[in-house]
Amino acid sequence: MVLSFTDRGIYCAQGDFYIDPWRPVARALITHGHADHARPGMGSYLCTHAAAPVIRHRLGDINLESVEFGEVREISSARVSFYPAGHVPGSAQIRVEVGGEVWVASGDYKVVDDGLSEPFEPVKCHAFITECTFGLPVFNWTPEEQLRRDLNDWWSKNAALGRPSIIGAYSLGKAQRLLTAVNFSTGPILTHGAVENTNEVFRAQGYALPDTIRVTPELKGRDFPTALIIAPPSALGSAWARRFPGASTAFASGWMAMRGVRRRRAVDRGFVMSDHADWAGLNTAIAETEAERIFVTHGYTSVFRNWLEEQGYDAAIVETEFDGETLESKNPSEEPA
Amino acid sequence: MKRFAALFTKTDQTTKTLPKVAALKSYFETAPEADRLWCIALFSGRRPKRTLTSAYLRAWAAEQAGIPLWLFEEAYPVVGDLAETIALILPPPGRKSDHSLSHWIHLIKELAGLEETARKAAILDAWDQLDTTERFLFNKLLTGGFRVGVSQKLMTRALAQATGQDEPVITHKLMGNWAPETTNYAELIEADDPTADLSRPYPFYLAYQLDVPPEELGPPDDWQAEWKWDGIRGQLIVRGSEHHLWSRGEDLMTDRFPELSQARDFLPDGTVLDGEVLAFADGAPLPFSALQKRIGRKTVPKKLLLEAPVVLQAYDLLEFEGEDWRPRPMAERRAKLETLIAPLPNEVPLLLPAKITFKSWKTLAQIREASRDHHAEGLMLKRLDSPYLAGRKKGDWWKWKVDPLVIDAVMIYAQAGHGRRANLFTDFTFAVWNGNELVPFTKAYSGLTDKEFQEITTWVRKHTKQRFGPVRQVTPHHVFEIAFEGIQASSRHKSGVAVRFPRMRRWRKDKPLAEANTLADLMQMLETYG
Hints:
heterodimer; A: alpha/beta; Metallo-beta-lactamase, Chain A; Rossmann fold; 7-stranded mixed beta sheet; 6-stranded mixed beta sheet; 24% strand; disordered C terminus; B: alpha+beta; DNA ligase i, domain 1; D-amino Acid Aminotransferase, Chain A, domain 1; CATH 2.40.50.140; 19 helices
């Protein structure tokens, strides 16, 4: 076993390091900056150059080192390298090779090119550790072109009526993906502080994002009747959002594929936009690794494992403390004040 | 189908009433008449007869999606709706079309006369030309149960606006046993005489639970009080020497309660009564479970007729000598009702509910406390000068129910909900202590907020001990206050009791597991109230 599964996280004995551990360890390799993958309290951190600024921003003064995508690091007898996971800007799959045997821990991933994140790169391996947040055949994402049309159509119709459009999305990843997807000539784009803080980090790194206006306590919602407002999920329906009276509300998440979830969320529109792979995406990604052993972590694990077994893989379920895509904010700092 | 799908999408994308009504109104103004009629039918609980079992649909959908049937069956409970599961799972359509709603309903009806291979071909052909929303609606038509967030009330309001008629007039026109196959839009909606159909009932007047102290209702002299029975609301119509019994859900129940046919011999033609159907023997109501045995049966065996005979407690008169009496004051309607019912021989199953006399609200409050002794759920308060209104209205009629019975019980099993609550655990089994053992005594599904359901769902996922299909056994830890309306002995339940209308009233996070109620407490309750 190149990697094993412990109560602290995914562990490599030969290199004595953990991947995305959920308890404090001496050495942590981090796939991306979401709070369930990058946690405080590790002795040292290793991630990609692209993911480092956000992780620093979120975890503060940590002992962090970073590498290029594809650059090989020797950690004792383990050879370690990072490949794009397409999940959010900077996110990586981690390839670990020991004595010719290759394992890949993919963290969270999606195979659709969102125009901003480094596109997912299949990595050939013997064993592949995959999430399956949306590992059921009912999850089939709206094609990216259609999704962009629907979004822009919603915004421009609201703008024509002088009605602001407010959309809930994670502040790391989904928010910037929305910024990339919308036609910014429709009107001003306003952002919640949690979103804008992440935007600033990304802009400083050189990711191309359109101009945005930070929503500050002094800002008057009435002055922006044609605006698109991007805020973390928890801000929707809160006092924060009430500064935009009459706004049309929307939510961007893979869960919006299900009518029941959409209705419970009680927003005007649900856009099926996920940072995770859909059914076809998971199956393609797994096939392209040419791995024989598959470990499924968070999501519809038991069903997905059975399906993979039926397809001839040697598949097993691994219990982790990763969340996948939830309908709430992942980072406590995103909670509106 | 595009127009109907657009209507659905508009109504589904909002929780607000105004845009829903506006979308429906615009549909009624622009859709072809045949589609309008079907739209009215669908949103008033009428749908094409099922011509296919869902087993075929599941198998064909799985086959089209290239997945094994077991995987389809795993996905279905997650989505919570068969029509939606199929719509989501199918590969994208191969072509486009835009046939009318009536076209697809006609196609569904035609399936009845086809061989299996021809049915399959027709369904696959339909799926191949409909987009996801259209497929969902088409599947809904196939699988029955067309509940998609548009109430009959909203549809009626929109139809009234689109046709320039009053809402109560439309409501009345849509009552009764019409079917889209045997009428047309002009006859149903545009024709003037709603009583053309002798069986057509009046819309029921429904009361709200009293939410203020009764003193705020004004002088007690302005009000009449009756027991609130726990039976089935029924409207008994005697017209043209025929009789019809309607439920509040607009089900025709005439044949289920043959006792009431005697009404034809004892009530004048052109009489309509509103009342409560109760199982009743020796001058007192039987438990609801006795009536329950009668509800499901279209024909009633003699034995059951003897065991659980029914009566109608008639508390209102809606029509007399063919004239609509609803605008007249309650007191006048009641007085006339008394002249009709009081003289009837004892064996006629039409009863006049006792008028409860009271001088002050305080006396009435005391009387109400004794409701359970009278096999009643509480009191009904009706303003003496009130007309008989249509639908649920505040002001003139109030339910004043007694406080529910409550037991603190331990959650031991959890199951995911359906539809709107598909990815939440919402269906729970609760138990009480019997020594060191927890004995299940009821299930409950409602009463928590969405936030609490979310919280308990996260907890259930982490504390599942064992799975039995969709049911999860969880660590006994959480105590809930379960409220219910009545309790009866039951040999079908391990606990020996069955409770009525159980729901979660409070999550007792403050209560340690050991302090939940015991089976002995339940037995005590059964003794007192059973």
